[in-house]
Amino acid sequence: MIRMDNVSLRYDSRRDVLTNIALDIPQGSFRFLTGPSGAGKTSLLKLIFLAHRPSGGRVTLMGQDTTQLSRKKLALMRRQIGVVFQDFRLIEHLSVYDNVTLPLRIAGQRPSSWHDNAVELLNWVGLGDRLSALPATLSGGEKQRVAIARAVMTRPKIIIADEPTGNVDPEMGERLVRLLVELNKMGTTIVIATHDKLLWENFEFPRLHLEDGQLTELGAA
Length: 221
Fold this sequence. Notes:
The chain has 221 residues and is α/β, with parallel strands linked by helices. 33% of the residues lie in helices and 25% in strands. Strand 4 (56-61) and strand 5 form a beta hairpin.
């Protein structure tokens, strides 16, 4: 599902942020991505999301070599990837409900086909009473939950999340990860970047560790 062959990434003329990354994540896998701050975890996730092209090497997603795809085809592939960013990227003039369902509207799906699922999902993440609230009125933890709900709403083939539990309490953090675990059981490939040691200790999934631009694959905790 996700493969990298000798991938490097460099910003401007600085040294490589990522160097000769080799990665092979099968379909339906769940991986934690760990490493110190500044190790390049966000950069690696952006390569998976196709927000960056590698400086060297090849990134293959869903069996396609992305280095050869046109911008149009890259955009279509991104629709199959759910992303939770650290800065949330909510649309400020849209309500919680409209932010979460926006990807489905863009895809041209009718509200009658997803309304009940959207409400159920927002109840699950503890936002059932905030459907009409605007992002400016939400706490950081609430914004995080909206971002996660939006990422999973379309049931994408891949979900990548950058510190998805960083703004919520441990109980809600575990609940959100369990939501991703349930999606994983249905076949979605999950990659979560996190500093939270309790997560990879409580959920027995393999761990990718990134440090000094090098990636190491570890077993479950």
